[in-house]
Amino acid sequence: MILRCTVTVAAAAALLLAGDAAAQVTRIDLQVVESPALDGLHVRNVGQYERLRGLVFGEADPGDPRHRGIVNLDRAPRNASGKVEYRATIEIYRPVDMTRWNGAIFHTVSNRGGAGAADLALLERGFAFVRVGWQGDLAPTDSNIVAYLPVARNADGTPIEGQVLQEFIFDDAERRSLRALPYPARSIDAPSTLTVRAAQDARRETPDDLRWTFVSPTAVDISRPAGFDGGAIYELTYEARDPIVMGLGFAAIRDAISFLRYERADRAGAPNPLAAGGLPRLALSLGISQSGRVLRDFLYQGFNEDLSGRIVFDGMHVNIAGSRKSFTNYPFSQPGRWQKQHEDHNYPGDQFPFTYTTLTDPLSGRTDGIQVACTASGTCPKIVHSDGEAELWQARASLVVTDPKGRHIELPDNVRAYLVSGTQHGGGGGVHVATPTRGRCEFLSNPLALDQIRAALSVALHEWVARGTQPPPSRFPTVANGGLTPATALDFPDIPGVTYAGTLNELHLLDHRALPPGRGGAYLVLVGRVNADGNMVDGVRHPNLAAPIGTHTGWNLRTAGFAPGALCGGTGAFLPFAATQAERVAAGDLRLSIAERYASPHAYARAVSDAADTLVRDRLLLRRDADEIVDLARKSRVATRDRAPAGVAGSADSGR
């Protein structure tokens, strides 16, 4: 049954108290689409949740100083009042019994339109969970979270045109491929160039048997040349038209959350769905991977201040973003791009500034920082920044805690930084949970989980914002504590079948005025020191890393036939220990076997339990998750008479 929100007498009366004309939300149209939601789950202390879904409508004034940085906003169509209109999907999960709501918004930044799911530990704390569409180049569906943003035009109504770089890596053995383009071509007859190269630093080539054609303004057909494997990089540079005003997506998040926090009804009288029991007392936001990069960009570009000068998010949890921002507020933006060592390496969004401390960049000469805008407006949130080990290798996370030359810096008082050691991008499915795979990678993917520690850090952020309880001290490898080192100097152990080359995602100053961009000097990117097993020493060490059954890395390599030797996306590697000393010696493996490490099945489970207890004590792991980790360890093959290694994992998420 679908129930439409109706205006109550109280809400109508509250119109007299609603915000002034500066509020950008003109209308909110929501329906209760599931009550109860979450398959009827009864959550401890809260009861059941219901899901509301609909659209939020807004408008932006191009003349407002807070909008001057939105690229092409001044060239977007305007309504009769001279404003630029937009709309976005909005989805809310709230307790059915709003007397059990904790008075806080927990916003999660949508990742490529995905809705995601709330952690049980957060559900039990009684948040109202909110998602707002911001990405304007996604096709809407009944379930995804998108923004409907305008296309910019010239003053005479003609299309805006510009060069676009479109990269393709096919990762298959086909010889012919049809691919879509992010923006329509100005003309299929306009000058365009397609090149191919085997690896990131290889020479761009146009071999005679590389042939391609536009099959429409939005798609190309490519016949791939001989001599290049499935991981080769194809770059098409073409004249495009119709840029989306993508930066307006930041405003959509700002305005929707500001409305939920501060307004009782929209201009038409539709009630704020969270206002019945009193307006929210605070708002937090979580961004994971692409969403974490967007959250850093949102803060950097000044959107944590609403149009009345009020703070939007009191706290932000930036997760697995590294030192990057996003390719969003640009003329022909592609927010889904993810700058890796092999793929998408040359797209904007990864340039200075890198950290929350204001610094001067010796390469560009600029002085800047992620918090410059919010410092000026007095709207800086409390920030938890958490990365995994993969972010050191793939996302230049060391630059969060160093200057561009690799020297130690101190973070501002409102920032805490944590690194979950031994994890691939997003973490794995759990050491004793899933089956390991290789995919296009040379080694098994890394199963070590990250999400349990992320949940504990989100809880700590809430307690910091709501009660003033200081979060755990930062736990991130630094130059000062000796935890960071150049990849070429890393003392990685000799492991049979593994050749360590120190390959990481290097970073240079890039000039994006040219396509492909011009390359300048290099920034110093560092990685985490390791022990004799090859496991990271510093950071937050998951119980399954503190009591390991193999080596867990933040890097993996592409396999033969698919650009071998390049980093394999965001996937880490799992290199199991031998089961016994005899097997280890026969293999020539210097790492101690499982039997040599754990004298009995009980000893392994005890080691995991002790490590879990330590993290719970330090507020870096919730007791519920600690108990689950220990229970899985006790039931694992390692903790039974079968002493064979038991590492299991799923592949890294290719869509991050």
Task: Please describe the structure with a list of short key phrases separated by commas or semicolons.
656 residues, alpha+beta, eleven-stranded mixed beta sheet, three-stranded antiparallel beta sheet, 12 helices, 21% strand, globular, disordered N terminus, disordered C terminus
Structure class: alpha+beta
Fraction of residues in helix: 10-25%
Strand tally is 26
Helix tally equals 12
Mean pLDDT: 93
Structure description:
It contains twelve helices and 26 strands. The strands form seven sheets. Strands 1, 2, 3, 4, 5, 6, 7, 14, 15, 18 and 19 form an eleven-stranded mixed beta sheet that branches. Helices cover 17% and strands 21% of the residues. With 656 residues, the protein is α+β, with helices and mostly antiparallel strands. The chain has helices at 9-13, 120-123, 248-262, 290-300, 372-377, 389-394, 451-467, 543-546, 581-587, 594-597, 601-617, 623-635; strands at residues 3-4, 25-34, 49-60, 84-95, 104-108, 128-132, 147-148, 161-168, 176-180, 193-197, 211-216, 219-223, 233-241, 282-288, 315-319, 359-360, 367-368, 382-388, 415-420, 444-445, 484-485, 508-511, 518-522, 527-528, 550-552, 573-576. The model is unreliable at 1-22 and 643-655 (pLDDT under 50). A hairpin with a 6-residue loop joins strand 16 (359-360) and strand 17. Among the domains are: 1-152 and 245-280, no CATH class; 161-241, no CATH class.
